[in-house]
Amino acid sequence: MFFCFKTFWRDVMSATKTWPIRRQMMVCYAMAIAIVLLLIITLMLSNLYFLQENTVSKIENTQGTQAVDNMNGLVREAGAYLYSKLTEVSVMGGLIRQMLVTMDFDENAYSLESSNITDYQHLPENCLVKDPPVYGNQRVCLRYSNYYNLSDSFDRNLLKKISRLNDIWWIVLALTHQIAIRFIAYFENADFLVIFPGTQLPKNYNPMDTVWYSTYIEHGEVSIGTTGYPDHIGNPSNTIISLMMPLYDAGNNKIGVLVVDLPVIAIYEGLSLVKYLQSGETCVVYNNGDILKTQGRGWWSNNITNMNKLSDSDFWKEVKKDPYGVHYIVINHEIYQVASYPVVAQTQVAGDDWWYLVMLFVKESEIMSYSEDSKAKIQEYGMVLLGVTMICSVITISVLLILINFLAKSIKEPLQGIIDFTEKINANATEKDNITINELNELKEGEDQVASLVKAYKTLASSLLNRQDNRVPKPLQVSTNRVYPLNELYGANKLKFKNLIDHME
Known about the structure:
Blueprint: H1 2-16, H2 21-105, E1 118-119, E2 128-130, H3 132-135, E3 139-141, E4 146-149, H4 156-163, H5 166-175, E5 182-187, E6 192-196, E7 198-199, H6 211-218, E8 224-225, E9 229-230, E10 239-248, E11 254-263, H7 264-271, E12 281-286, E13 291-292, H8 300-303, H9 313-321, E14 326-331, E15 334-343, E16 356-363, H10 364-426, H11 437-441, H12 448-470, H13 486-492, H14 494-504
Parallel strand pairs: 1-4
Antiparallel strand pairs: 2-3, 3-7, 4-6, 5-6, 5-11, 8-10, 9-10, 10-11, 12-13, 12-16, 14-15, 15-16
């Protein structure tokens, strides 16, 4: 390859030797600029390639780490929101529990008067209203509570004490109206329950058959929440959860359970603000894997009800093992990153003792699309940079060629003048050929070394011209005495010489 290049270059140099100096200079400079430009473009493309690869690699790593941090941060905020709402309800429930205990010590402790609490069939008509967004078509009384007795031998004395809370229930509900829709105080041994707001309960209603009661008993009659289930008291099309808190008497004996019903849709309304990218979806999962669902929400709304039923059976195990981490799962041929955060009760610790788990699902393809977008942007801006470089290079080359043209012209013209003048002298020009000192002085001198060359040539040529002018031809002088050549003299005087020779003999 080197030999071919050498041969090619030698042929080019041989072909250009006969060119005018101006053309040779232009070609040489143009080739030099083209080579420099080619090197610059090659360097730019190489730098662009390595910059793109390194940047995309860094972006992928950074984006992956950043995505995990962002998802963890968002799911923590969602968990904090849910925890605050559950704590808000728990605090109000604690207030009710404390009032019941205190009133058992002293009925006059809160200066609350007993009221005529009615059963579920005799609520005042003037207080019954419809509130479809929360209670469906069920009419409720937002001012009074009502009771439901499970036997005729229910504890009427305890019911009288509970009636003092009629002035408290509506305040508690007003403070928790953004999430709570119903309070139920069920007294097992007293065979009755109190519900607020006043509600006409279904016939043959038995609290022992409810989801909240079975959950309460299953977990040892401690404060606990339920999974989602239809609201059979109000609107069965709505899904609710219930929080249960045990009730105690003055002797610290369990006398019942306080239940607070919360609509799942109210939970999701607050969590809907927690969103990551376009595909990010937040859901709440109960401890047993049940997904708290609302109608038409999320990819899990129709085909998935429990995390244990996912195709990846180990996913839920990993989540329960590390509820604060980020995990991966494939759903419908799509990879998701899943961040989770447990909501722990005030009396519980982290681990398997949490009630609810907030989970944020985000498509891995959308997270990784940032690297592709970044790569495309780098390519786009790289091509713009390359285009700008090419334009600037063309402008620079044009300017350089113009300057080189002027430079070549400033060198060519003085040398061409020397050549022309020399040719006139070499042609044995005479005075009639207009070779004069003035013409010599008009030769352009150029710049730098060219000027020195022209000046030296002028000095040389001027001396030659002056010497020629000093050799003026003299007129030819004819001698009066003819000069004869030897042969002619011999011919003219041969007789004389012959006589002289003969005489001498």
